[in-house]
Write a structure and sequence with these properties.
Layout: H1 3-19, H2 26-33, H3 37-48, H4 52-57, H5 61-81, H6 88-91, E1 94-98, H7 101-105, E2 112-118, E3 125-130, E4 133-139, H8 146-155, E5 160-163, H9 165-175, E6 186-190, H10 194-204, E7 212-213, H11 214-220, H12 227-235, E8 248-249, H13 262-274
Length: 276
């Protein structure tokens, strides 16, 4: 999809979230997206695989609570098995490496970090990568990547940043075409506290499309009752989509917030739920 196609889809999700009870007709949704009904329906189904109304049903609190219950046995098996479980570490061929203690103490001093943008099914992204692997993936909220780059620089204040658009484009094609033959392994190099790394690795153990509550995640990382601290660590996840922080929701079925915007969280969850 073109970047502007996702923008139209996100606009539709935002509109449906506010007006779904009004049962808006296809023509109304198409006008909101600035397209004819024929082209709008084709665009949305090409992206989501389902109609706009079917898509929004995946995002209802009732549906989310049902998915939480359905995920319970899968989560039990995945968390019991640890990092060898058939979650995203297996599905996406992701391997994780924390910064060495020496690198962490030096706060990445003199480390060369390259960056650039790429397209995704959920809008434009800014990627950050070290010689050893990917360290950041941020969805852009505007037309330029200035805010996202400043956030990366805040996380790596002593490192050297270099623009490398060609490598970012190649990496993006690999990241978002995982089902194609010959897709390479994704290596993440993460910088965080031991607690943050524990939360992020627990997220990587989530089986495909499974949801988890903040409370359940807190228990799995040995911090029962510390849902707020876990929520903070989830919000500080530096690698969107690959570390699926968008799949952490409240026990009530309410989706909750998202570092890269609640509409994008809805897009991610609905898109995954619609995949067969």
């Amino acid at each position: 999809m073109k970047p502007q196609d996702y923008d139209r889809v996100e606009k539709t999700i935002r509109y449906l979230s506010r007006h779904f009870s009004e049962n808006p007709p296809l023509g109304k949704l198409a006008r909101e997206a600035g397209l004819s009904p024929f082209h709008f329906q084709r665009l949305f189904k090409r992206w989501a695989g389902v109609s706009p109304k079917q898509f929004i049903q995946y995002l209802s609190a009732q549906n989310a609570k049902q998915r939480l219950l359905q995920s319970k046995s899968l989560l039990d098996a995945a968390f019991d098995a640890g990092l060898s479980s058939p979650g995203r570490l297996h599905d996406l061929l992701v391997s994780v490496e924390a910064m060495t203690p020496g690198d962490y103490r030096r706060r990445g001093r003199d480390l060369v970090l390259e960056y650039g943008t790429c397209d995704s099914p959920f809008g434009r992204c800014l990627l950050l990568f070290t010689p050893r692997g990917l360290s950041g993936l941020a969805f852009l909220r505007g037309k330029d990547f200035g805010p996202e780059l400043r956030d990366f620089k805040r996380r790596w204040p002593l490192s050297i940043f270099k623009l490398n658009p060609a490598r970012a484009a190649r990496m993006g094609r690999s990241l978002f075409r995982r089902k194609k033959a010959g897709a390479g392994k994704i290596h993440l190099v993460l910088k965080g506290t031991s607690f943050q790394l524990k939360v992020w690795e627990a997220l990587l153990r989530l089986p495909g499309r499974a949801l988890v509550s903040y409370g359940r995640l807190a228990r799995e990382v040995g911090r029962a009752g510390a849902s707020r601290a876990v929520g903070t660590a989830v919000g500080q996840n530096p690698v969107a989509y690959l570390i699926p922080c968008h799949r952490v929701i409240r026990e009530s079925g309410v989706l909750g917030g998202y570092h890269w915007g609640v509409e994008r969280k809805k897009a991610l969850l609905g898109w995954e739920a619609a995949q067969k």
